[in-house]
Amino acid sequence: MLRSDILAKFAELGILPTPQRVEIADIFLEKPQHLSAEQVIERLRELGSRVSKATVYNTLNLFTERGLVRECVVDPERRFYDSRTSPHHHFYNMDTGELTDVPADSIRFDALPVIPADSHLESIEVVIKVRRDSSEKLT
């Protein structure tokens, strides 16, 4: 993605551009993908960048807060950041650690619990955890 496009997106979302934020956004916005903070740090290092872990985590939190990426928590110790922000669900492969998209309209809900008073439904996010069949597991 062009730097000018990233800067325009930042302006739209009210994100102050810093060199580190632009670098991180460039990684996410090059294609639809799911990355953990550790994967972002690894990619930055491969590019020769010396962005600190704290900066990466703070930037990912900001990007999530402003809607540039979506956070997907697959378990208490594993979270991904998704460059695709439109509503959709995920498969999480517990053997490979891979997260893949599931179209929002491929999951149907016949009924939902009653939403508490003075509340409204913001979103539904489903993570379907899968494993290889035992006959296909690598030994």
Write the layout of secondary structure elements.
Layout: H1 3-13, H2 19-29, E1 34-35, H3 37-46, H4 53-66, E2 70-75, E3 78-82, E4 88-93, E5 99-103, E6 127-130
Parallel strand pairs: 4-6
Antiparallel strand pairs: 1-3, 2-3, 4-5
Helix pairs in contact: 2-4, 3-4
Q: What is the terminal separation in angstroms?
A: 41 Å
| Percentage of residues in DSSP E strands | 15-25%
- Under CATH, the homologous superfamily of the largest domain reads Winged helix-like DNA-binding domain superfamily/Winged helix DNA-binding domain
- CA radius of gyration is 17 Å
The CATH topology of the largest domain corresponds to Arc Repressor Mutant, subunit A
CATH class category of the largest domain: Mainly Alpha
CATH architecture assignment name of the largest domain: Orthogonal Bundle
Tally of structural domains? 2
Give a short overview:
The chain is 33% helix and 20% strand. By secondary structure, the protein is of the alpha+beta class.
What does this structure look like?
By secondary structure, the protein is of the alpha+beta class. It folds into two domains: 3-81, Orthogonal Bundle (Arc Repressor Mutant, subunit A); 86-136, no CATH class. Helices cover 33% and strands 20% of the residues. The chain has a three-stranded antiparallel β-sheet. Helix 2 (19-29) crosses helix 4 (53-66) and helix 3 (37-46) crosses helix 4. The radius of gyration is 17 Å and the shape is globular.
